[in-house]
Amino acid sequence: MSNVIEIPFETTLLVRDTCLCLHVQRAARALARRFDEALRPLELTNGQFSLMMSLNRPEPAAMGPVATLLAIDQTTLTAALKPLTRRGWVTILPNPRDRRARLLSLTPSGKAVLAAAVPIWKVTHAEVETRLPDGNADRLRRDLLALS
Q1: Based on the structure, what is the number of domains in the chain?
Q2: Which of 30, 69, 77, 138 is the most exposed place for a label (fewest CB within 10 A)?
Q3: Residue 120: CATH number of its domain
Q4: What Pfam family does this protein match (any one) (predicted)?
Q5: For 104-131, what is each residue's pLDDT tens digit?
Q6: CB-based contacts of 136, cutoff 8 Å, min separation 6
Q7: Dihedral of the CA atoms 116, 120, 126, 131 (nearest 10)?
Q8: Crossing angle (nearest 10°) for helices 20-39 and 9-18
Q9: Domain presence at residue 33
Q10: Residue 65: how many CB atoms within 10 A of its CB?
């Protein structure tokens, strides 16, 4: 005799149609693919663009705040930095105030790639905003920020 509990198919449809997590994940994947395709000529992914943009600041950035901004852990950040450092776009240096900590900064070639990516990002971003049904990107940003 089996004690398998059957979940009604109606529950599957309810989750499919109403689950915010599912819908946000689907939208995030679709957006990621769109930006990846747009940035492909620069051999840059949307994640790399976001990471490099987070390093576009007057002073080198500590890893902790960058990881927090990108909503990733430091291990994931370290892995994401590897291809960027191999390409010579990012440098990782010891923090002079704490030799165990690391500081991240864009190299001149990294800044050049980022500068080439910004116009692509602007065009792609504008296209995405026009696809919103009510055209209210600010509302969507506020709602997503509230969830994060």
Answers
A1: 1
A2: 138
A3: 1.10.10.10
A4: MarR
A5: 999 999 999 999 999 999 999 999 999 9
A6: none
A7: -160
A8: 50
A9: no
A10: 12
